[in-house]
Amino acid sequence: MSARRFTRREFLKAAGTVTAMTAVNGLPIDAFAATYERKLVRFPEKTDLILLTSRPPQLETPLSYFKELVTPNEALFVRWHITPIPTTVDLGEWRLTVGGNTNKELLLSLDDLRKFEKVSYTAVIQCAGNGRSFFEPRVPGGQWKNGAMGNVTWTGARLKDILNAAGIKAGSVDVSFDGLDPCRVPTVPDFVKSLPMDKALEEDILVAYEMNGGPLTMLNGFPARLIVPGWYATYWVKSLSDISVNTKAFEGFWMNPAYRIPDNECGCIPGGTKPARTTPIHRMSTRSLIIAPGEGQKLTANKPLTITGVAFSGGYGIKDVIVSTDGGRSWAKADLGKDLGKYSWIQFTLPWRPAKLGTYTLMAKATNTIGDSQPFEGLWNPAGYLWNKVEPLAVVVN
Question: pTM of whole model > 0.90?
Answer without folding.
Answer: yes
